[in-house]
Structure formats: structure tokens, C-alpha cells
UniProtKB/TrEMBL annotation:
Annotated GO MF terms: methyltransferase activity
Keywords carried by this UniProt record: Methyltransferase, Transferase
Name of the protein: Methyltransferase domain-containing protein
Domain Methyltransferase: 43-146
Superkingdom per UniProt: Bacteria
Biological processes, Gene Ontology terms: methylation
Coiled-coil zones: none
Keyword Methyltransferase annotated: yes
Source organism per UniProt: Flaviaesturariibacter amylovorans
UniProt cross-references to SUPFAM superfamilies, sorted A to Z: S-adenosyl-L-methionine-dependent methyltransferases (SSF53335)
Amino acid sequence: MTHSNYIIAGGAEGKERLAVLGNVLNPGTLSLLQRLHPEPIGHFLDLGCGGGTVAIAVAQSELARNVTGADFDATVLELARQDAAEAGLTNIRFETADATALDLHQQFDVVYARFLLSHLTDPPDTLKRMARAARPGGLVLVEDIDFSGHYCAPASSAFTRYLELFVRAARNNGQDPDIGLRLFRLFHDAGLEDIGFSVTQPAFHEGPGKWMGYYTLDKISGAVLRQGLATQSELQATLDELKAFTADPNSIISLPRVFQVWGRKRKV
């Protein structure tokens, strides 16, 4: 995967957006991980780790003795390294890696990815690569979106326009913003066993999580403009309207539905 394939801007500003998501989702992720893998994890891989919020949370929780975060964005990885160092963590490392070219075999007890596969043009191949990277009996855990479940109340034309722009920008890049609905089948196709899933969807009337839609529209503005989906003035008008709607204390905005799907690699 290259930077041009990813519709959401990365770097330091992108890391701030991921940090908000991490604060909302990480407690549920850690709880699920502990339930699925109650014994200490020897080696944990967070593929497409972004700003490292999950990897750092796993390292801090002591669920895993050794944590590796891998991502293609060298800038955000360096920021993640700084965060880990400031937290005094010695059981974590970050590596630059392309998830679509992952070529590791039986190295990790848990292979994890959040919001990665929905940004790829060949997610089945990357999921199979994740399975190969797991040790026999190891756990593969993916959290990814069903964007069609994203909602607000009351109705907002700016929110609806945001949904349209995100979906069109992603599909124009050959990506699937509703991949959450397909993950259960993809895990079967990847040869994994003991497959299960759950669905979570936080919604907000206040706080940082409520602003995720606005932040996301802002971060896909480059892709929207490059693809000619809106003019600069049209995009700015939508951003302004969505900002006002989000600031309204009487409005509710959700995250997209998040599918948590897991399976185990067949033991030899």
C-alpha cells in the first residue's frame, strides 16, 4: 500500500485523529483481546498500526511480552516511537512495513489490524498474509468498519454529504468502506478456524468522539479534491455545516459500525 492509495491524510495531523479513535475504542479492544487470549501473549503484531495507540496500549497493559507495530507511514511511526519512549516502554518496537507485502511466517501469537483492510484494494490477500504470520494456533483479530451503518440524529444534509464523499472516494480507489460485513466470510476463505465476531458502535452527543466525522471529512479533503468529487468551496461549505451540526449539543453522531472478527490459525 502506498500513500496515494490511502484516502485519509496521515502524518502528525492524522495521528491526532487516530489518537481520538484509540481513546474511544482501545478499552473494548483490550477487553476482547484478554478474553480471546487470556494467557500472556509472547509476540503481538499490530499491522497498519498508524500512531501506535493499540500497540502502546497492549504494551502498557502487559497483555503481551513483546509488541511490534508496523506501518507504511515513517513519519507517524517516529511519533509513535517517541510516545513509547516517553511512556518508558521497553517491550515495544515500530517498523516500517507495507501490509500488502507482508512476508512473515509463524512469528506471532496474535496478529491484529484495526481499520486497515478497508483501505486496501486486495484485503483477502493481506488477511492471508496475516494468517501466515501467526503461529499455529495463533489468533488473528481484525477490527474494521461497515461505513453504511454510520448515522446521526436529527438528519443532517452535511453529514449525508460527508458519507457520500467518503464512500465515493474510497470506492474510486478500489477500496471497500463496508468491508466489516464481509470479514466473517474472508476469515473462512483465509483458512482460519474457530471464527467469531462481535459488533460495536459508539455514539456521542458531546466529546472528542463526536467530532470524528468532521475530522475524517477534513482529512479526506485531499482525495475528494483530487478525484473531482467537490470543489474547494463546496467542500468548505460542507465542512462548515458539519462543524456547526457537530457543535450542536442536541445532535447525536455515531462512529461507523465496527466489526470485530477473529479466528485461529490451524494447528499443525
